[in-house]
Structure formats: structure tokens, C-alpha cells
């Protein structure tokens, strides 16, 4: 059975003056896939992601996200994807319920839908007792889970997660990945950046960017076999040494 392409990127390039941050990258992502987008700081992965979510215009090349062209339909792209930024994206000075209502409105949900989604989300996260508390009062792990759930309020086909588990403890990280798996099994595509190489093992496929170029793209199993190593961390290190 042919897999449905949900993201199609061809020769995508981003220049800042004389500096080329992303150098003509090409790849596809499939529906329901957990796709890891890896690279060291400065490799170009954040710049590439900003183009894919419609907040930075490509210098050259094309990117089709959920059937929409990021260069000409950026506003539509933003409304049809979920996004969780590396810096916590909810409002600390609003309660949990108020945050859900606010973002539900931004995503264009009706009052009835927002009410239903609020009950569903608060129940699923077991936050009934703290739903009227300010988000600022929550532990970081709870904030991250809430932020992920809010990014899915409007049931997007794709959700982009930028370093979603940064700073949280190992148990919370594992719980967060269980949420990711659950969502992927429902058919949502997960596009995730992470600097935790053990998390790369959880992805269906990973790409590794080095200096603005995708140097490797395959399943973790195939990459470990190709580079004759036991972990994705070793793949990353070996690749970096080969480039040097």
C-alpha cells in the first residue's frame, strides 16, 4: 500500500545575506509517521522548521505541508498544523481552562467545541482539580503535556514539536512520548526536533542535519546498521567525524 505524503520538501533553501542556513534540502514525511529532525545547534534544523510552519519564507525551493504551499499559503498552513515551541507557548497568567478557551478561539473552534474539548482535555490529563489554577503554578512536565494537548485542539493532520521534552525529568519524558505514540496511532503526523539522541530511537525515521544539509535519513535501525554502531548517539558522532 502506497504511503500518503503529508510533507513534501524539494530543494528548500534559506539565505540570510551571504550566509546560507539551509542548503537545498529534499525529503518527504508520511501520514501518521513520527519523524525526527535532528542536528546540533546551528545545523539549520530550526530555520528549516520555521519555513515548514509558515513563519519564515523560503529563499528557494518548495515545501508542501498538508497540501498547502508554505511560500504562498503561509496563513493557511499555520491554521492547519499544530505547533509546540521550544519555549513554553501557553500563557502563565491565564488558568488552564482560559488557555484552552483562548487557543480554541484562535484555531476557529465554536464555543460548543471549546467547551467539549476543555472537558475532554482536562479529564484526559487528570487536571480536573487544578483546571482553574494559573498555568504558572504547574510543574514543567504538566505544562509540557498541556501545551502538547492544546496544539492538538483543532485536530491538525500534523503537529510540529520543537525540543518538546527539554528540561523535564526522565519519567515525564517517557510519559510525553506515550502521548506522542497515542496521537500517531490516530493518524496524526508528528514532526519532532530533539537533542536527546535516545529519543531518536522512538521515531519511525530520522533525518540528521549538518551545516544546513541533510547528511542522513532513514529508520534508526537502518542507520545503526549502516554506520555499524549500537545507538543513535553513536550514529550522530560518527557522522560528525566523517564530515570533519
Automatic annotation (TrEMBL):
Keyword ATP-binding: yes
GO MF entries: ATP binding; ATP hydrolysis activity
Any one Gene Ontology cellular component term annotated for this protein: membrane
Keywords: ATP-binding, Membrane, Nucleotide-binding, Transmembrane, Transmembrane helix, Transport
Transmembrane found in the keyword field: yes
InterPro entries in UniProt: AAA+_ATPase, ABC_transporter-like_ATP-bd, P-loop_NTPase
Membrane topology value: Multi-pass membrane protein
One of the Pfam families matching this protein, by short name: ABC_tran
Localization in the cell: Membrane
Span of domain ABC transporter: 7-236
PANTHER family for this protein: ABC TRANSPORTER G FAMILY MEMBER 20 ISOFORM X1 (PTHR43038:SF3), ATP-BINDING CASSETTE, SUB-FAMILY H, MEMBER 1 (PTHR43038)
Protein name: ABC transporter
Amino acid at each position: 500500500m502506497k504511503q500518503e505524503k503529508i510533507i513534501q520538501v524539494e530543494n528548500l533553501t534559506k539565505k540570510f545575506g551571504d550566509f546560507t542556513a539551509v542548503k537545498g534540502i529534499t525529503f518527504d514525511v508520511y501520514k501518521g509517521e513520527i519523524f525526527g529532525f535532528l542536528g546540533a545547534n546551528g545545523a539549520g534544523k530550526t530555520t528549516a522548521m520555521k519555513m515548514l510552519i509558515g513563519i519564515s519564507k523560503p529563499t528557494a525551493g518548495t515545501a508542501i505541508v498538508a497540501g498547502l504551499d508554505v511560500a504562498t499559503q503561509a496563513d493557511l498552513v499555520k491554521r492547519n498544523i499544530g505547533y509546540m515551541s521550544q519555549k513554553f507557548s501557553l500563557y502563565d497568567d491565564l488558568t488552564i481552562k482560559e488557555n484552552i478557551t483562548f487557543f480554541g478561539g484562535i484555531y476557529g473552534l465554536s464555543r460548543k467545541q471549546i467547551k467539549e474539548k476543555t472537558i475532554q482535555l482536562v479529564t484526559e490529563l487528570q487536571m480536573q482539580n487544578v483546571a482553574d489554577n494559573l498555568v504558572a503554578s504547574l510543574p514543567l512536565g504538566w505544562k509540557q503535556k498541556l501545551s502538547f494537548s492544546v496544539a492538538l485542539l483543532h485536530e491538525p493532520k500534523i503537529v510540529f514539536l520543537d525540543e518538546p521534552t527539554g528540561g523535564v525529568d526522565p519519567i515525564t519524558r517517557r510519559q510525553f512520548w506515550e502521548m506522542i505514540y497515542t496521537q500517531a496511532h490516530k493518524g496524526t503526523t508528528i514532526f519532532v526536533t530533539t537533542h536527546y539522541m535516545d529519543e531518536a530511537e522512538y521515531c519511525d525515521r530520522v533525518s540528521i542535519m549538518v551545516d544546513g544539509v541533510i547528511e542522513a535519513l532513514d529508520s534508526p535501525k537502518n542507520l545503526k546498521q549502516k554506520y555499524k554502531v549500537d545507538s543513535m548517539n553513536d550514529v550522530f558522532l560518527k557522522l560528525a567525524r566523517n564530515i570533519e
